[in-house]
Amino acid sequence: MIRHLMHCTAPLRATISSYTLRSFHSAPPLPRQPVPDLRKVLARYLRSLQPLVSEDELESTQELVEKFLRPRGQGEELQKLLHKRAERTDNWLTDWRHECIYLENHLPLPVHSSPAVILPQREYNDWVGQLRFASKLICGVLDFKAKIESPGGLKEFWRGQPLCPDQYHKFFGSCREPGTKRDRILFHPSHMSQHVTVCKNYQFFELNVYNSDGSPLTEDQIHQQMLFLRAHSKKTDKEPVGVLTTDHRNSWGRAYSTLIRDRLNRESVRSIQRSMFTVCLDATALKFSEDLYSSRTAAQMLHGGGSHANSGNRWFDKTLQFVVGEDGTCGLIYDQATADASAVLTMLRHVLDYCSEGPDLLPPRTPLIRIPSPRKLYFNFPPEIKQHVEQAKQNLDILVNDLDICCFSFPDFGKRFPRSYNMSPSAFLQICLQLAYYRLHGELCATSEVVSLRAFHHGRSDVVRCSSPEALEFVEATDDPQKSAEEKFLLLVKAIDSHQATTEQVLQGQSVDGAILALKMLCLSSGMALPALFMDTSYAVSSHWRLFTGQVSSPVDCVMCYGPLVPDGYSVCFAPSQDTITVCVSAFDCCQETDAERLSDSLQGALRDVRALIVKCRPGEE
Fold first, then answer.
1. CA end-to-end span of the chain, whole Å?
2. Parallel, antiparallel, or unpaired: how do β-strands 174-177 and 184-187 relate?
3. How far is CA 567 from the centre of its chain?
4. pLDDT tens-place string over residues 514-550
């Protein structure tokens, strides 16, 4: 199925197809992200609680909000501190989200943090085609890197406004470094990076991709290097050192400290960290039926399939990891600490356009210039490191076996249908998802949708709270035989409009969760006590994201997937094209209450039922 799927990262709603790419020597300065009005933000916070908590809990929280906002109270003082921070920083939110959500998160990067983008299967099924495509792909990425580093650079416009290009210059040469308490990001100047890391059979190679005069190698030259690399990467009994990067961050941090004590290991690790990006040449995965192909390929791409598959053929700390399988599978894994979905998909669009031009491999027109062969990176494995590897293998296999992924393409209609009724496709899909969850679990839950804030200077992302009183009113009425179709339709429109309005508020920098995070961080930095408002039951319920969602509409034919944020939750990624909708749902098997396949079935039923309701009430408008 994935061969024809049209997708959806992350973690992630950013409509790439509506971006305009231009090259300018100058562009209008980007606006700074505004400081939210706490009184208005907390009013919206209380609205978001209505479908999630009891009346008594809501009343208690209202009292806490009123106390917090009293004149000359804690809220007023924190608002002043936030304004001061906004005056002296490029973006008052980005650094805090970067630290709290990513660098201080101890969960493993695969599944829990790093999204995977699965591209359509290529038309080859052997190592010959694999190396040819990998060579062309590397050239395409180098071409994109040259574009963003050119005097004009790469300018993107959304709704007529420029988008912040800052993160593009951190794509290449960046890497996480694990710590026992907190990770950090290592930035090696991209103009100084001359090589990429290539992984094959759990072995790592340093592949120089520039000539001595600074010009990039041709596709033919890179292909010759790939042939050499393959000949020198036969399967061995060496430990799969890459599997260490799949472990919990504090465990990997301890292993990392031990690993780099050895000089040889330290030099090899530094080479990987300083490389522009990583290319993983995967062995053929297990064969699956056509029905399971998309879901199993998504799982393979997301985590590598486990310790006995391709998980050791990764270095998850790298910002960009391109995966090219021997069976034609290919995709990308990226680290959200440095890269966002909208920027990643813009890069992929450029790379895939490059790869689609001309034959897979052009015959050399001039004699190949002799260039240094790829350098194999070696590691020593003292007993302590071997123990760390074995423990990482066990933890990874538990995670892999626990994750359930269901990808499907919904063929009945796409975003053209809601647009024909002047409905926002993204809001339409979110309300259908609320209905699907309600039918399955008998209630609504805390739901977040990630959106891009790149319209602001150094903006990254934030979340929309999707559960609303209007959504609850609609889902309760949908299967109520006492409600007329017209009543249900009007409630649907009301719910869609409410979600769209909430989304616009976040896009304008007035996010509930961004403001709450800022208040928490200000308390920590100033030594204040944390407001009681954020220690009550309502806040815990409303921030336990049982539905973690995203949507990326893109001309890039791909599927995105990522894991749930909480053990008893789901992740749902939408990819609407004009006439179909691709969806990837994931859940953990350890939770008996969640089931990715059941939610997928419920979602398809909700989509059909909502469409039927609209057509019944407004016939002839489609």
1. 28
2. antiparallel
3. 18
4. 999 999 999 998 889 999 998 999 999 999 999 999 9
Q: From residue 332, give the alpha-carbon distance in Å to each of 206, 347, 458.
A: 19, 11, 24
- Check: CB of residue 310 under 8 Å from CB of residue 304: yes
Backbone φ and ψ of 510, nearest 5°: -105, 60
Distance of CA 258 to the CA centre of its chain: 30
410 three-class SS = strand
Euclidean distance between CA atoms 254 and 451, whole angstroms: 34
What residues contact 277, with CB distance under 8 A and at least 6 apart?
141, 171, 172, 196, 197, 318, 319, 320, 321, 322
For the chain, give every residue range classified as CATH 3.30.559.10: 36-91+416-552+592-617
What CATH class is the domain 36-91+416-552+592-617? alpha beta
Q: How many CA atoms lie within 13 A of 359 on its CB side?
A: 5
Q: Residue 547, exposed/middle/buried by CB under 10 A (0-12, 13-18, 19+)?
A: buried
AA letter at 165 = P
Copy the structure tokens of residue 575: 């990819």
Distance, CA of 41 to chain centre: 26
Q: What is the DSSP letter of 276?
A: S
Query: CATH 3.30.559.70 spans which residues of the chain?
Result: 110-403
Q: CB atoms < 10 A from the CB of 528, how many?
A: 14
Dump pLDDT digits (tens) for 413-432.
999 999 999 999 999 999 99
What are the strands of the beta sheet with 195-200, ordered from one edge? Answer: 375-377, 203-208, 195-200, 278-282, 320-325, 330-334, 116-119, 559-561
Considering the four listed CATH numbers 3.30.559.70, 3.30.413.10, 3.40.190.10, 3.90.550.10, the one that applies to the domain covering 110-403 is: 3.30.559.70
At 133-179, the pLDDT tens digits run: 999 999 999 999 999 988 877 888 888 889 999 889 888 999 999 98
- Report the distance separating Cα 477 and Cα 72, nearest Å: 44
The span from the CA of 376 to the CA of 366, in Å, is 28
pTM to 2 decimals?
Answer: 0.90
Q: Could you give the CA distance from residue 413 to residue 125 in angstroms, rounded to a whole number?
A: 32
Determine how many CB atoms are found less than 10 A away from the CB of residue 62: 14
Element (H or E) spanning 67, and its range? helix 55-68
Q: What HEC string does 151-169 produce? A: CCCCEEEECCEECCCCCHH
Query: Rounded distance, CA 85 to CA 248, Å?
Result: 33
pLDDT-based confidence at 29, cuts 50/70/90? confident
